[in-house]
Amino acid sequence: MKIIRIVFIGVILSLTTVSALAQAMTLSVDATDAARNMIHSKLAIPVKPGPLTLFYPKWIPGEHSPTGPINDLVGLKLSAGGKAIPWRRDDVEMFAFHCDIPQGVNVLDVTFDDLSQPESTASAKLARIKWNRLLVYLQGMSSDAISVKASLKLPAGWRFASALPIVSDRNGELQFKEVSLTQLVDSPAIIGANFRKLSLSSTAPLHELDIMADTTAALELKPETLTGLRSMVQEAFALFGARHYRSYQFLVTLSDHGGSEGLEHHESSEDGVGEKAFTEELELLDFAELMGHEYAHSWNGKYRRPAGLATPDFDQPMKGELLWVYEGLTQYLGKVLPARSGLWTAEDFREAMAAVAAEMENQSGRQWRPLVDTAIDVQWSYPSPRAWMNYRRRVDYYDEGSLIWLDADVLIRTRSNGKLSLDDFCKRFHGGQDTAPMVKPYTFDDIVNTLNEVTPYDWRSFLNARVNAVAPHAPLGGITNGGWKLVYTDKPNTEVRIGDHARKSVDLSYSVGMMLKEDGSVMDVNPDLAAFKAGIAPGMKIISVNGRAWSTDVIHEAIASSKTNSASIEFVVENGSFQETYKVNYHGGERYPHLERDSTKPDVLGELIKSRAR
């Protein structure tokens, strides 16, 4: 497979380095210790005598930041013909390792172990095989120009699933087809003791749901869930009009210990969820959105990719200024697809959009920071702590991006009297002819021009105002022009409940203005609302409320009764080794966001989630 890429000026390929890899490098992975969170890697890399630099993948496509887990690489040894070759890490670029290849040596042997973090990649019964964690390559070469022959040894009795083509499978040892380094890294695997494979399409191309779980019971899913996933495959094709993969596999892991995951690839997606994702109501709703989001990425993010993210290797830094398209549009489609396929109801879709609208409208950080800055800064902001996130802003290009694209969708539908929609943009921009995996980079101008081809409008100003300028309010035009309005009631919002369930939190963002852990620890506050104004801040811990010992029921009761109580809510708060009493002047009761119908306008939101495949 040849993947089209941009090679930027300044990336110079040495003729010596290119000729050094006339043959494929081999990668032998031993995952028999996966349950102990350790995977063994052995490489044989064609080389020539002289100075050589090996590079551990740093910038992983889809992760938008230098996330290569270099600290998990241990036991690194280089050798040739059984003789050790010394190496030295670069003083500035910690992912680079320098060595000198002796005369007469044409193959460098490399061994090391990957200490997979149990909370992110593995449990006792399953693991994710991320090839980028298990290799080094010659620095200065395009990943398209490097061929790799990979093999994988499984723990006894474990199964395997991946989009990577298999040459042979004998006694738990798999040999894969020789592919480019690009394709290898883009084709992760899941392995595990409990496995189930389900078909999601009856005709070519193949679409498959591959599930690994900590227990056999977790593998069972409701017939209507399977029907909805099959519908999602058809709805995506109806939306985009073409596919850019030869087959597609949803690689799902179900574990409360293996970590959550959501990472896109051309021909597969890594979808890590809790063990009860198929049976617990809130987790199933969250799972449906995850599947829609990662699947849409095959078109928006993998096939069409911002030029700043279309780098030629895993060394070059990525530029994220267009992530409000890459992730924002995908975030929007990740809500539309579950609704169109029946995995969500219309009410589920509205609750999700209401939660997004309220969160973005109530971000105090939007008073100083334009949306584009959250995209440019993402390589540093991803690991930011939860504390002060409301004031800081973090990865708002996801959710605020979805509001922008909803706004655009409703505008196109309104201006065309319902004849056109964002679907037409997606067909023009992401569709065309069916192809094998490839990358077609784009710029801001390409977005503007394609939108104008669908519906002439001043799209440049439309986008600049919402993306590049400081905007005191969230872009809610898609909701208000779509026949709905954002309101707050004492009824809990479904999406807020999903978030609280996943985080084990108590979200009081729209009442007193804070988010708490279930033990009373303050996770975040809104500097514009009552809790912060009274003196409460992240890092503190609530001990009691109105004289009663902390519990989630007590805090909810206190906030609900504030509506008829003229006294302030009294919090005893622990701050380090001290305790202080704070009086929060709030009398609004419990407040959660919802969408309420505006009968003076057509229900455009109802139209945009109707099935297109039936």
What descriptive keywords fit this protein?
globular, alpha+beta, 614 residues, 28% helix, 9-stranded mixed beta sheet, disordered N terminus, 26% strand, 19 helices
Q: How is this fold's topology laid out?
A:
Layout: H1 15-20, E1 25-30, E2 39-46, E3 50-55, E4 73-80, E5 83-84, E6 88-89, E7 96-101, E8 107-114, E9 126-129, E10 137-138, E11 147-153, E12 159-162, E13 166-170, E14 173-176, E15 179-180, H2 181-185, E16 189-192, E17 194-199, E18 207-213, H3 223-240, E19 248-254, E20 261-264, E21 268-273, H4 281-296, E22 304-306, H5 323-326, H6 328-341, H7 346-361, H8 371-376, H9 378-381, H10 389-392, H11 399-415, H12 422-431, E23 440-442, H13 444-454, H14 459-467, H15 477-480, E24 484-489, H16 494-503, E25 505-508, E26 514-517, E27 522-525, H17 530-534, E28 541-545, E29 548-549, H18 552-561, E30 569-575, E31 578-584, E32 592-597, H19 604-608
Parallel strand pairs: 1-11, 18-19, 19-21, 22-23
Antiparallel strand pairs: 1-2, 2-8, 3-7, 3-10, 4-5, 4-8, 6-7, 9-16, 11-14, 11-15, 12-16, 13-14, 17-18, 20-21, 24-32, 25-26, 26-27, 28-29, 28-30, 30-31
Helix pairs in contact: 3-6, 4-6, 4-16, 6-7, 6-11, 7-11, 12-13
